[in-house]
Fold this sequence. Notes:
Elements: H1 3-34, H2 38-52, E1 57-64, E2 69-76, E3 82-84, H3 97-102, E4 108-111, H4 114-117, E5 130-137, E6 140-148, H5 158-261, E7 265-266, E8 270-273, H6 274-285, E9 291-295, E10 301-304, H7 306-322, E11 329-338, E12 341-348, H8 380-390, E13 395-399, E14 405-412, E15 421-422
Helix pairs in contact: 1-2, 1-5, 2-5, 6-7, 7-8
Amino acid sequence: MSRVEKNGKMLAAELRQTARLHAAIAACAERFAETRDLFEILKSAVPVIRKHIGLDRVGIFLYDARLRHWRGVYGVDDQGNLRDERNISITDNPRTPISRVLAGEADEFFIEDFSVEFPDEKDMRGVKNNFFLALRAHGRLLGCLSVDNLLTQRPIDEKTREDLRRFARYIALAIENLQLLERLEIQNQELNRANTDLQEFAYVVSHDLKAPLRGIASLAQWLTEDYGPALGPEGAEQLELLVARSRRMQGLIDGILHYCQLGRAQIKNSVICVKDVVGRVVDALAPPSSVLIHIDGGFPSVVYNRIQLEQVFQNLIGNAIAHMGKPAGEVWITAHEQPGQWEFRVRDTGVGIDGSQHKRIFKIFQTLKSKDESENTGIGLAVVKKIVESNGGKVWVTSKVNEGSTFGFTVLKVVQPHPVPSADGR
């Protein structure tokens, strides 16, 4: 066999080995993506390192940055058997690679004769070449790999080290992704717990406040009826103000309860005719004869919760009527088809809203008038925003002072894949 043929066969064999390694890494990466078990991920990495990278023994360690603590995971004993090393103790020796990584000296160490350099390491007796590689993702230290060829005593050459570096990047990313998912789950659990506690707190406090408020309102009414002439005009005015503020406080409490209950239950959506919903809302609001209501254009049927859609239109149309600010006015309710969604608008000829207030009015408890000028609680538009966004839509306002206002919101044409919360559980 000529030298060219021999070199060609060696090259072909090397290429086949590289192809098998890449295929093994790809298969392992798929398993990494499918499982959320960290120890299963690391356990499946050991055979790849041994069989396809050609290393006898591997030790995998994880690092807890918060506790500044190393812990073992999996390793291979001196007989070549996989073993669980989660209870292994890490030697505190500043000369070992694991300590030098923490000290920031380097992320990898190649030791020619480990058993000579560290004679007190019982598990490493007889080890010649040792390669230590830190596992990092986006700069964060996550763990390390320690490999050797105790069983075969083969040298760990540069190609082998490069193959391990390539595979280690996949391991590090898998560890990072899983840790991020775990942290996200914990944060979601804490957030859900906090929301539940807040909703329960609001419900209990609001319920307990209603009784004394009713008592205050009733007492003020009795004082007005029994002692009105003795109180005089100023006293009567103060009692009227007390009654008005009690009513506003009761409305505020009801609004808090309603807003909190939007996230307490699951709802059922159905196909509903929007024009029917708008007609029922207008009838229920019973606008004064000085305000003309126009329901224009073709209205579609949408998949929505009927009660929630009624709440949205009731708040928008009711606000247009209540805050017209003029002796007479008009309100238009229209529908506009767009790609993938319907857009609904409620336009009025009222006094309008200054542009600096457009974002503020959708926040809970925010009103444009002082508390004594209006019984508005500042919750209605916050409820609209929460309902619309929970159903995958958007809500907005366009308005100028003395030029009227247009409130719009969108409804997706597709069925919502997940149930959204409702105040009444429907």
